[in-house]
């Protein structure tokens, strides 16, 4: 195999000569300090690593730049890898070589990192075979590379907090985000209406049109909701029982205003960096519940296998054309251009996915 | 019976002469406009009312002035009786006379309004027999008059939101309130620690001492918690899984700071009239849940019988000396002096209870 190398290693002060299966060197997005991602990251070449008996070496094919990747590099994400680190958290690749004890995975198989874990932004990754989840090769690779975090977050939030039935409704802010787009489509598949809140910005009409095509029942900019009673806008859509918040500040207050008596708002992001403010009567008399969702914690609470089944379900929807979202593929050599887009330097952009 | 009257009524244009059981006239705290309770309320005499076959006429003995009574008169409480109205919401009395079909209740029995309902501040109340809950006459009347709202709220909040075990902890603000005093004692009975937050004010040392005597593990004024990490104060008390908030604003933020990973804060009041502000990361990474509790809604959701059983349990604790709280009895003739105290015109005061 191309990445098997015969080398000599100096171990415990003793020179030993033996044959060891090694990975190719790996080009990686590396950082050894927290700070602005566009300044602290650089592309370096990491030396080959040993492929042990149960390891699988994967040549990475694609990996997205998610907001949480940026927060980890900035150092503001509460759980992050120790420094120095390689960026990225989810991605897919092709099996390059396998350790001698590995069964069920062979060179050429397509696999994804499962659960999502640090170090996806590099050309070659060596991990235990249990870390890799083989997926149907008919799946577009850019979707497989992005399915384990945002679409899965959308699915869990639609399913886990409120027992929604066909005809019920969800209200969400940040509706143009990848999670937002998935929520619209996953809800639609179950006959659940969505009320969608987006930022005021140039291009908001196009954004509304796009979300409507995905199945959104209603789309409002924040300023359109500056009315006395937002519920008067609902028309035939019922008051939503579930609200999803990834923005905070005023956009979270708007979600709360739409919620019906006894409704639940789930916070999964804070793009505005503003806190959530809630009146006392929202809790006592409107009986609202506020919770949070963190996919990483959910998966690590014994749900790795469950998450793989759900990912396969989502990939099935993707192959059937029932779940789609905006993606822009960028070659690894132009990583920093993609990073600038993900950092919002050029306004609203599709999800940036690195192609190795 | 003293309140049986023979009168003639003109009904449906037809003059009929017959005997009807009537209540005595009732002196009542009456208001026909919302506004400041000390200006819009007046004591008037209401005419006798008919005691129908299933009715019970009760001579009221005692009724408290609760914050929600004040808010109903002010018109800021979302659910309130139509105007004109008689104030008050809970209380006890002695059966004065019963309708011909009433069994199980006799003159002289002690009963309480159950569920709590509008119109307790008057000398005589006529309601269907199902409305009255007979209680053990060995109970001090001022406790029976105050048990159905605040102590029951404390009990439900300690029991219903988090599965607490002996050795666990609760953090609460507004700890000197009647609910607060009950939470301390009900928790203590189950081996649950309490961390208590009170306002900065003159007399805070006495308040601390009093709460400690009731069983509080820790008592802090808000300013004492102006430290970097409030959890460093916990010593041997574990991080609390349940927080109770009846204040809002900074006092609610302090409760949130004490809560452990995955903890729940229940809001049941908003004495500061300030909203609750929560960071995004409190929801996502600290996995906090925020909910509300409203006793009236809980009882009306099919829990009238359950609430009576719990009230009996609480009255038992009271008779055994295991549950006590500050009460000041005031004769009905001095209602407006008691109201001024309840309105906070003379600083912090014990719960004001009207004695009829």
From TrEMBL, chains A, B:
UniProt-annotated location(s): Mitochondrion
CDD domains on file: ETR
EC annotation from Swiss-Prot or TrEMBL: 1.3.1.104
The Enoyl reductase (ER) domain, residue ranges: 35-354
InterPro entries according to UniProt: ADH-like_C, ADH-like_N, ER, GroES-like_sf, Mito_Enoyl-ACP_Reductase, NAD(P)-bd_dom_sf
Enzyme class: oxidoreductase
Transit peptide keyword on record: yes
GO cellular component: mitochondrion
Record-level GO BP terms: fatty acid biosynthetic process; fatty acid metabolic process
Keyword set, alphabetical order: Fatty acid biosynthesis, Fatty acid metabolism, Lipid biosynthesis, Lipid metabolism, Mitochondrion, NADP, Oxidoreductase, Transit peptide
Major localization class: mitochondrion
Catalyzed reactions: a 2,3-saturated acyl-[ACP] + NADP(+) = a (2E)-enoyl-[ACP] + NADPH + H(+)
GO molecular function terms attached to this record: enoyl-[acyl-carrier-protein] reductase (NADPH) activity
The keyword Transcription is annotated on this UniProt entry: no
Family: Belongs to the zinc-containing alcohol dehydrogenase family. Quinone oxidoreductase subfamily.
Name of the molecule in the record: Enoyl-[acyl-carrier-protein] reductase, mitochondrial
């Amino acid at each position: 195999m191309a990445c098997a190398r015969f080398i000599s290693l100096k171990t415990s002060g003793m020179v030993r000569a033996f044959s060891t299966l090694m990975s190719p060197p790996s080009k990686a997005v590396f950082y050894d300090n927290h700070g602005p991602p566009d300044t602290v990251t650089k592309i370096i070449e990491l030396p080959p690593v040993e492929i042990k008996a149960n390891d699988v070496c994967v040549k990475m094919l694609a990996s997205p730049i998610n907001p949480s990747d940026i927060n980890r590099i900035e150092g503001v994400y509460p759980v992050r890898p120790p420094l120095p680190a390689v960026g990225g958290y989810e991605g897919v690749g092709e099996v390059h070589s396998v350790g001698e004890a590995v069964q069920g995975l062979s060179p050429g198989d397509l696999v994804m990192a499962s659960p999502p874990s640090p170090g996806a932004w590099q050309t070659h990754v060596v991990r235990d075979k249990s870390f890799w989840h083989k997926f149907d090769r008919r799946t577009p690779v850019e979707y497989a590379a992005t399915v384990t975090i945002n679409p899965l977050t959308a699915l869990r939030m639609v399913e886990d907090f409120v027992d929604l039935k066909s005809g019920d409704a969800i209200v969400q802010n940040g509706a143009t985000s990848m999670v937002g787009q998935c929520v619209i489509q996953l809800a639609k598949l179950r006959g659940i209406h969505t009320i969608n809140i987006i930022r005021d910005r140039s291009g908001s009409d196009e954004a509304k049109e796009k979300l409507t095509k995905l199945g959104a029942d209603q789309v409002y900019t924040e300023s359109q909701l500056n009315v006395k009673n937002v519920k008067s806008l609902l028309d035939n859509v019922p008051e939503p029982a579930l609200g999803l918040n990834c923005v905070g500040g005023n956009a979270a207050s708007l979600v709360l205003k739409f919620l019906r008596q006894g409704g639940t708002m789930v916070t999964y992001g804070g793009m505005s960096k503003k806190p959530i403010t809630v009146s006392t009567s929202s809790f006592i008399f409107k009986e609202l519940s506020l919770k949070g969702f963190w996919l990483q914690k959910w998966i690590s609470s014994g749900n790795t296998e469950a998450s793989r089944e759900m990912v396969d379900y989502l990939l099935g929807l993707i192959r059937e054309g029932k779940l789609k979202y905006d993606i822009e593929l960028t070659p690894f050599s132009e990583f920093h251009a993609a990073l600038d887009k993900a950092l919002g330097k050029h306004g609203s952009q599709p999800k940036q996915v690195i192609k190795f």
